[in-house]
Design goal:
By secondary structure, the chain is of the alpha/beta class. Helix 9 links the parallel strand 12 and strand 13. It starts with a strand and ends with a helix. The structure holds nicotinamide-adenine-dinucleotide. The site of nicotinamide-adenine-dinucleotide has 29 residues, from helix 5 and helix 6.
Length: 389
């Protein structure tokens, strides 16, 4: 059984799928690990570190992709500089594991199925207790929440903590976190550690206790509809509920120095939480960090990958924040992958066992078919859209 670790060629991606420590553990279990030359460089893991851990360094990308049984990646496969697609390098029947964005890019799933690849999308790992050690969405979202607060603190033209000095007293910064999932909760904890006064809001009432246990105030909005879907995710809410929400949150946004938005509804464009009018009503010098920038943004003024200045308010739309903490992001992701591989490899042999609920949920293509109904539906919707446009 040969495992391959690809070098990420996407420009913004600094993470690597396995770190030397996890390579050593896999080798101890009798597996062979090939690491593409330079794969860990941007996360500060050298080829020499991987070699010491027992890996074989492979400089030839075509050989690495074409001769492994399981190929591990962070992001989606890309087109190479020579115009060839990375997917075309994989051998028939190989397993590909990574963040494959199957609901946002179902055409990729279709191509993987056509190439007879068994593709496992880390986004589709169920959020259950048994799958916790494989939950890469959580390990990476937590980093994003932490880094969002650091960006906000570095951008805000004020202190975060309260200070009593000989030159006067500085009040603490007011931070409002919108969306209290994994990223939002880490953002609350980080902002509290920096001494800010924190409020948080989410349409799922179940998070109230978690928010309060981190020392933040929960801003409650009573909505007359179910807001939680299967798996604990949020549902898209009605226009009436959106209006009700906006009425309540406007004053909290406008009284805050920092607003961090993290709201997502899986498979949908990010919900709009901060309108342009709300931004216009904020104090000059305030900061918004929009973690949903890549999914369309929670703020109407967000532009992904840019800092926008609007009426004295800075709106930051960061892209791929986990990649900006590449050592620990790679370490946690590597642990997620090795836990998952323990389910896939039995007695040194690859066994894609669909009676296991985690494999069943996360394996999106196998035997030439797309085997996940949500991905199939997303593909049909995309195909219909391209026919009508
Ligand atoms: P997510 O990234 O999908 O969304 C982030 C947050 O945005 C969620 O809390 C969501 O409720 C909120 N949101 C959506 N629409 C909103 C709106 N209009 N206004 C305000 N907030 C809105 O969420 P996530 O962080 O991936 O977590 C999803 C779920 O999975 C949560 O219930 C979480 O507790 C659960 N989870 C469970 C486990 C586990 O049991 N092992 C692990 C991780 C996460």
């Amino acid at each position: 059984m040969r495992i391959g670790v690809a070098k990420e060629i996407e420009v913004c991606e600094r993470r690597v799928a396995l770190i030397p420590d996890t390579v050593a553990r896999l080798i101890k279990k009798g597996l062979e690990v090939w690491v593409e030359a330079g794969a860990g460089e941007r996360a500060f893991f050298s080829d020499a570190d991987y070699e010491t851990a027992g890996a074989t360094i492979v400089a030839d990308t075509t050989k690495l992709w074409g001769e492994v049984d399981i190929l591990l990646k962070v992001g989606t496969p890309q087109e190479q500089e020579n115009g060839h697609s990375e997917i075309d390098l994989l051998k028939k029947g190989a397993v590909l594991i990574g963040f494959l964005n199957p609901l946002g890019n179902p055409q990729l799933a279709q191509r993987l199925a056509e190439r007879q690849i068994s593709a496992i999308a880390m986004e589709m790992i169920p959020r259950t207790t048994r799958a916790q050690s494989m939950d890469a969405l959580s390990s990476q979202a937590s980093i994003a929440g932490y880094k969002a607060v650091l960006i906000a603190a570095a951008t805000l033209p004020k202190y975060f903590p309260m200070l009593t000095t000989a030159a006067g007293t500085i009040p603490p910064a007011k931070v409002f976190i919108m969306g209290a999932g994994v990223a939002g909760l880490q953002a609350i904890a980080t902002a509290r550690r920096l001494g800010a006064v924190v409020e948080a809001f989410d349409i799922r009432p179940a998070v109230k206790e978690e928010v309060q246990s981190l020392g933040a105030k929960f801003v409650e909005v009573k909505l007359e509809e179910e807001t939680t879907a299967a798996g604990g995710y949020a549902k898209e809410i009605s226009e009436q509920s959106k209006q009700r929400t906006q009425e309540v949150v406007t004053s909290h946004i406008q009284n805050s120095d920092v607003v961090i938005t993290t709201a997502q509804v899986p498979g949908k464009k990010a919900p709009l939480l901060v309108t342009e009018d709300m931004v216009m009503g904020m104090k000059p010098g305030s900061v918004i960090v929009d973690l949903a920038a890549e999914q369309g943004g929670n703020c109407a003024c967000t532009e992904a990958g840019k800092d926008i200045l609007k009426n004295g308010v800075t709106i930051v739309g960061p892209i791929n924040l986990p990649s900006s903490v590449p050592i620990h992001a790679s370490q946690l992701y590597a642990k997620n992958l090795t836990s998952l591989m323990a389910l896939l490899i039995k007695d040194g042999q690859l066994e894609v066992d669909f009676s296991d609920d985690i494999i069943d949920a996360a394996c999106i293509t196998h035997g030439g078919e797309i085997r996940n109904s949500r991905v199939q539906q997303a593909l049909e919707a995309t195909n219909k859209q391209s026919v009508t446009s």
